[in-house]
Amino acid sequence: MGWLQRLFGMDKPKEAKVNPPTQQPPSSAASRPKTDEAPATTKLSTTPPERLGLHGEYDQSGLAKRVALAFDEDPDLDDINTLYVAQTSTTVVLKGKVPNQAMLDKMVKVARGVNGAKDVDTTQVTVG
């Protein structure tokens, strides 16, 4: 069982990406009538990187899911049934137990490589 399946109850979606491009809201320019007036300034909302889902959509747990996907895609990281991935804003939170420090160091490196991860909290991880 992979990380995504165990943590989020989902199989790896086709074409899921660890660092997907942000999906932009559809432009409403086509629906506005053309006039000689300058277009009104509209504020386009973009999804913050820590909220990007596996396909670039908004997802409250997007960063944690993309870190889980990154763990699934790394051949050196086996699914460790005693470790969990969560997020607090831009911080990836690892919780549980890992077999050794080298494994934890590798997981931290992989997690930091995910867009939107500004820090990795390992204070809730025990080694050994």
Q: Can you tag this structure with a few keywords?
A:
128 residues; three-stranded mixed beta sheet
Notes on the structure:
The protein is α+β, with helices and mostly antiparallel strands and 128 residues long. Helices cover 23% and strands 18% of the residues. The chain has 3 helices and 3 strands; from the N terminus they run ααββαβ. It has helices at 3-8, 62-73, 101-112; strands at residues 83-88, 91-98, 119-127. It has a 3-stranded mixed sheet, covered by helices on one side. The longest helix is centred in the middle third of the chain and has 12 residues, at 62-73. The protein is globular and about 40 Å long. The protein starts with a helix and ends with a strand. Mean pLDDT is 86; it is low at 28-33.
- Numbering strands along the chain, what is their spatial order in the largest sheet? 1-2-3
Mean pLDDT: 86
Shape: globular
Helix content: 10-25%
Please specify the SSE layout and strand pairing.
Blueprint: H1 3-8, H2 62-73, E1 83-88, E2 91-98, H3 101-112, E3 119-127
Parallel strand pairs: 2-3
Antiparallel strand pairs: 1-2
